Amino acid sequence: MSDNNKLKIGIYELTGCAGDALLILDCEMELLDIFNAVDIQSFLMAKSDNIDGDLDVALVEGSVSTEREIEELKDIRKRSSIVVAFGLCATVGGIQARFSEEEWTQNLKEVYGDTEMTHTKAVHSKPIDAYINVDFYLPGCPVGKDQFLNFFTRVVQGAPPESYPVPVCVTCKYNENDCLLNKGIPCLGPLTADGCGSVCPNHDVPCYGCWGPAEGANLTSEYHLLQEKGFDIEAIKKRMSNYSGSKFQEFFEQFKNKESK
Amino acid sequence: MDKILAKKSLTQWLKKLDGYDIYAPFPQDDTWNYDLVTDPAKVSLDYLNTAQAPKKIIFPQREVFLEFARTEDGAPQMTETLPDPAPFIVLGVRPCDAKALTQHDMVFAGEYTDPYYWARRDKSVLVGLGCATPPSPNCFCPTVDGSPHSKQGLDILLTDMGANYYVEALTKKGEKLLGAAKTLFKPPTPKDKQTKEKVVKDAAKKIQRQIKNLAEVPPKLKGMFESELWDQEAMSCLRCGICTYLCPTCHCFDISDEVKNAGAVQGERVRTWDTCQFPDFTMHSSGHNPRSDKASRLRQRIFHKFQYFVENHKTYQCTGCGRCISLCPVGIDIIEVLNKVIDHA
What we know:
The structure holds two protein chains of two kinds.
Chain A: E1 8-13, H1 19-26, H2 31-37, E2 39-43, E3 55-61, E4 64-66, H3 67-79, E5 80-86, H4 88-92, H5 101-112, E6 122-126, E7 136-138, H6 145-156, H7 169-174, H8 199-202, H9 219-228, H10 233-241, H11 249-260
Parallel strand pairs in A: 1-2, 1-3, 3-5, 5-7
Antiparallel strand pairs in A: 4-6
Chain B: E1 2-6, H1 10-16, E2 21-28, E3 31-36, H2 55-58, E4 62-70, E5 76-80, E6 88-93, H3 95-108, H4 115-121, E7 124-129, E8 156-160, E9 164-169, H5 172-179, E10 185-186, H6 190-206, H7 217-222, H8 229-234, H9 242-245, E11 253-259, E12 266-273, H10 294-313, H11 323-327, H12 334-343
Parallel strand pairs in B: 2-6, 6-7, 7-8
Antiparallel strand pairs in B: 1-9, 1-10, 2-3, 4-5, 4-12, 8-9, 11-12
């Protein structure tokens, strides 16, 4: 079936819920277009005759949490011209990466005890750019349909994908929502990458940050703001680090140092 | 042309305005926003000010410039999508928001005339409502050369006199609206005129906030490009863009091609609002960004409004509505910033 003038694409899943890969299949109206426009070489969720050859574009979902995945990821990088971190887990490591190395070791021991792992060895969960160079990031939990289709179309047409260096607030303003922070509700919109259509604030639900950190987010200011609104450091930390993977850990480390001093 | 309209006759007047779409403020959650009137009986002008300025009706957040598609032989095919709205009335425009539209007019009819903007603007009739009480504790229109009953940019000004509106038709467009329901409008008595003058005078006194001496700001800013003030003031900015999105005078936009179909290329060229408060606003294709930090972006906002615009158009690009102050989640206050500029050594 290989059609030489079409882009060769591979879709891979590491540790995650597979929601991002599922989102592609959920593009029901566009699915025929997608499958016709490119040559999908590997897509475990959608087909059985998968080929692990050279690729133009690899979409990688999920975080890296075992040694086998590290090898798999490095192999994908070697075979692909463009690697895309596809979804929150691949971009920042996801919920499973929110712990420090120390906490993770403790958790592993608590859950698995002394059980010997023969299949592969677990490692502390990390985003894929901890191991390989990543060309493009498409965050989201799962990625947004519009963002994906926009990205996909641009790549297929040989155009560079658009970046979204703005927070959720932008779309939230578009949708004419009242600012939840101004109402004293702990919204993470200003810290979170845009792309969801501000779906939570549209329904008066504060943003939980599931798109991961927005580029250049002002953590200090959001932290002080939430503190002013009456939330304590633990509550803020819990909220802010839910979906930010390892990215906000450094920020909270400074409080630890202050406390110990 | 001055007239008196009983408040209870407002609905009847609106019902007579055939051939116009009418936009009026409606309560929406905890705020008021403009929406199309479907039932004139539901219109109430008992509001402070809308969250969004009425600029969005004339200059929408997103508008399609053209549709494009690739034909079978590969040639692009483009279809222009100029808007062609019915004449429309915007009811209850606050004077600050009307004045802001006159500034949009300067921008969109400068070197180039923007056909998309004017297609709507030419069809608009603005019926203003003076502010008998300040709509916001952060209003400061008098210090930016405005007033709570300014007529600038309006076709009709309504002044709230309790049971009646004092109606002033300021343009031909405005007079036409009064002509549509002649029997509802009574000539004002000398006493009405006195009452109106008193309302106007009292309203100006009720404005709580002011900039010390704004005339000092434009020349002073010239020497403050590198000031540390911008770093200090922008420190807490969350980069949400509220200040510029809700600003009645901000008019910056982006144009992009939205393609949604992976196979056959087809899509739309759209204009969307953009703001100097976002880092990608000035991002060059080389990757260089001349305004890469928050401080330079806040500085741009102040410089554009109180220096560049003054040089280019001889007026401040701010009408004192106070939205950016009231709604900034971290309390960045443009009046305070300007007062600090004035005090700056």
